[in-house]
Amino acid sequence: MLNKNESNKKYKVLFYLLGLIVLIIAGWRIIDYTNFHKNTSTPNNKSNNKTSIRKNNPASSPNNSTKKSTNTNSGQKVVGGVISTSGQNGSNTSTASTNSATSSSSGLITLMQPSSNSTISNGAIIYGTSKLSEVGYTLIDNKVGVISQGSLNVINGIFSGRMLFTPHSTTGRLDVYSTNAQGVQSNEIEINVNFN
Fold it and tell me: CA separation (Å) from 108 to 37, 88, 120, 154?
């Protein structure tokens, strides 16, 4: 038969083991919760690292109206996205001018609309050609950062859509690019734009 001290030692060991198990489970849950929210959060400021902007905002389905909420430097929420026009120009003219086209250095993406230094407003058409299957874009307002972002399928060599955004300044930049499975961008085009 166990004496009282040995019995107390066994209970203490059991108590410490149970406490250790509870701490391990609690720590695991906290780490899991933190990782989940870190992977699903949107960036809260404009970053010079274009890859991080695009990696944290997964490509949307190009055939649906897509609105994404993005935090900006000023703490305001802005809404942006793209509505696919299924490879159609969507403007009043039948084709975009090839004189104002801008191509990536690889030649895999050519942006025909909007042109560099043009003035755009909410619902502006993004239109071009590509040898890839999908093209992404990011519209950046010089005051608040990213105001619209999305991706478009390339149909018969053409991508097109309507950009949805709310500008906060009069100037910005449009980036068009491709993204690999790891979220790394390439075949980049950058043009300056003005907002109306």
Answer: 35, 19, 24, 12
* Angle at CA of residue 74, ends 77 and 188, nearest 5°: 75
Question: Worst-scoring range by mean pLDDT, 79-88, 123-132, 152-161?
Answer: 79-88
Rounded to whole angstroms, the Cα distance separating 111 from 125 reads: 11
Cα separation of 30 and 103, whole Å? 47
Give the residue from 68, 86, 88 showing the smallest Cα distance to 78: 68
Q: What is the distance of C-alpha 174 from the center of its chain?
A: 13
Alpha helices by DSSP H, listed for the chain, are 4-40, 50-56
Write out pLDDT tens, residues 18-30. Answer: 888 988 888 777 7
What's the pTM value of the predicted model, to 2 decimals? 0.57
Order of strands, edge to edge, in the sheet holding 119-120? 119-120, 185-195, 171-179, 134-141, 145-153
Element (H, E) at 141: strand 134-141
**Paired strand residues for 147:** none
